[in-house]
């Protein structure tokens, strides 16, 4: 895209907290959190953590030592577990996905390796996603994030007017439908393909964040498959622009992983994209989600 995009440093400014140290990662979104042990964090500390998450949209909480059970406990501090469709969870932990790529896997493909919002086709998509790095390559495997509030703000007044009257169609068909076999390349994860018709769902194309009140561009290239009431050839030019614009560098941040880092992002107003650049190295992570609300205007 040739347009010049920008945002203001004040969009992601630092704030002082009693129980956390928070350093913004970019002018768009994201922050590193240090000086906290999540296994010992008080109730007041978790209140501040949620405030920081709503402010920065994605947090990287460094130098943690979390078992699977402790990750579950941290997740429940933010709300109830979300539903994990299509991907097999851990046998004794039905709300935890073991995201692992071994060093000897044949294909460089990685789980979730495209811009997306987690499970946006659900009636109540996740409010938050938590991802803990148990074993991290020495370099590579960064995750990109995009701010969908900034994307909405960038739209022209007329485009906002058009989009606010539309519903987008969300479906898992491309990733998990009967013909979507690319996930077979995940040698150490089990994907359950199947009939995805029951998961086709319409959500407002522009939503209002239920906690911050900000308006959000609620579409994503992985799960948004059309616009309700428009023919595919009418909808696609609109979606092509809406899919491209949020990935402008000014609206994104790139977060580097380290062992013991827990990432938490607000799934209601962000995209993320894991980078497949560590083939030949081992990476092991654990993922949970917190159920959100039905998206609304």
From TrEMBL:
Keyword entries, A-Z: Dioxygenase, Iron, Metal-binding, Oxidoreductase
Ranges annotated as spanning the membrane: none
Q: Where is the TauD/TfdA-like domain?
A: 22-289
GO MF annotation terms: 2-oxoglutarate-dependent dioxygenase activity; metal ion binding
Say yes or no: keyword Acetylation present: no
Q: Which family does it belong to?
A: Belongs to the TfdA dioxygenase family.
Q: What is this protein called?
A: TauD/TfdA family dioxygenase
